[in-house]
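Quick question about two entries, pasted in order.
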Amino acid sequence: MMEILTVSQASKYCNVSTETIINWMEAGGLPALKTVGGHRRVRKDDLDKFLQKKSIPLPEGVKTEERKKILVVDDDRIIVETIVQALEEDECG
C-alpha cells in the first residue's frame, strides 16, 4: 500500500523545514498531491526517489533499490572480464 505524507511528516522524515518541502514541490522536482481542501501531500516513494536523485541522504533504515557498483581493477584484461562476467551472472542467478 502506498504511504502518503503530509508536508510536516515529510519535513520530519527528511530533517528539513516544511518550507523546504514546499519549495521542492513548487519547483517541480518533488511530485505533490493536493487534497480537496488544498493541502499538499507527497507519496513516500516519490520523496525517496527525489532524495536519491538529488543525492540527499535518505533517513536511516530506508532501503533503496539502487544497484550496487563494484570497481574491478587489474592490469590483466582477461581477469577483469572474468570477474565482471562472474558478477553479472551472480546477479542474474
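Here is the second entry:
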Amino acid sequence: MYYKGVVHWYAHRNLVVILCFDSLYDEKVHCLAIIDECLTFICYPDLRRVSSPVQEITDIWIMEEYNVNDSWIKKFTIRCSPIESPLAVWNDRLLLLQDERGLVISYNLNSDKVEEYKLHGYPGSLRIIVYKESLMSIHKGSTQV
C-alpha cells in the first residue's frame, strides 16, 4: 500500500508487523507498529482455522496519528460472512470486500449496513478498480503530460 509517500507491507516471523520503505528520505525499512493477529488495518478470521468463535466478525483498526504506535484504535466491527479479501474503498465510506464464497459484499462505514451483490468469482480472484472521471485529456501519441 502506498500512503504518505511511503510503501507499506505486511511481514511476519514470530510477530506480525507493518513495515514501510520511505523512498524519499532514507531508503531504510521501518517497523511502524508491532501488532498481534487481531491488530491490523483490516482484521478478519484466518480461514485456515477450523473452529473460530469470531468467524463472522471483521474488525477495522485505524492509526489515528501516523507513525504513532499507541494511536491504533478499533473503529469498526463488521458482522458478515467470513472475508476472503478486501477489494477497495469507494467514496471514503463504502468498503468493498470478497467473502469466502467469492461473493462481493459492501460495508457502509456511515450506516453500518452490509449489502451482498450478485457478483462473484473464485475466492481471492476478484479485483476492483475505482475510476475517477477527469477533465484532463490525454493526447494520443504524446510523451508529455
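Reply: The mean pLDDT is 67. The CA atoms of residues 103 and 109 lie 19 Å apart. Hope that helps.
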